[in-house]
Amino acid sequence: MRTRDSNKEELVKQKTIEMIVKYGIEGFAMNRLAKECGISVATLYIYYADKEDLIKKIGIEMGTFFFKSSLKDFTPDMPFAIGLAKQWENRSSFMMNNTDKLACWEILQNSNYGDFIVNESLMELKEIMTKFLTGAIERKEIVPVSKEVFWSIAYGPLYNLLRFHEKGKGLGGTTPFKLTNDVQQEALRLVIKALTP
What gap in Å lies between CA 166 and CA 188, rounded to an integer? Predict the structure, then answer.
């Protein structure tokens, strides 16, 4: 039996992400991946049982990476404003520094693999963020809202600003846009104001 080569395995992961972003899941094939990596198809099967196994494992790894990144220096019992600021900092940093992984994650999350990948990689994150929300409500730091409303108000503005940043253009696509710390803090202040009593 052939042994695993960690360098080849990392190359396979990176090329998988690039190819899913470029071709989508339907255009992604093991033969094409092997060619892109400069390895035989048989080598791929040392690491993964099949295409589905590869996609699921890559998705879970990315979800876990996102999960760990978003919790850096964060605890769910933080005061609401401090915790949300830390979440914005972590999420914007992750998204700005991992555009390829984020694009792949979006494709996978909206595919037939999405529910499986999210359930396998983000369940603990969901639990932690639910604890953060319920704790803030119990301490009367924010108005009582459902998880969906909270998520939309607390993170929607950040994700929209990050989309503008990624495109490099503001609303209407006519003016240049870059997400600066000042802009991010301005939006965060408005979000906190909207959610606090």
Answer: 19
From 148, 147, 154, select the one nearest 196 (Cα to Cα).
154
Helix (H, G, I), strand (E, B) or coil at 93: helix
Cα separation, 80 vs 192, whole angstroms: 8
Neighbour tally for 26: CB within 10 Å: 7
pLDDT value for 5: 73
Which residues are within 8 A (CB) of 15 and not within 5 positions of it... i.e. 6 or more apart?
Answer: 33, 36, 37
d(CA 100, CA 107): 11
pTM: 0.85
Strand partners, 176: 169
Q: CB neighbours of 169 closer than 8 A, spacing ≥ 6?
A: 175, 176, 177
| Helix locations, 76-180, DSSP H | 80-97, 99-109, 114-121, 123-138, 147-167
Q: How confident is the model at residue 2 (pLDDT cuts 50, 70, 90)?
A: low
What tens digit of pLDDT does each residue of 144-191 get? 999 999 999 999 999 999 999 999 999 888 899 999 999 999 999 999
* CB-CB contact of 143 with 195 (8 Å): yes
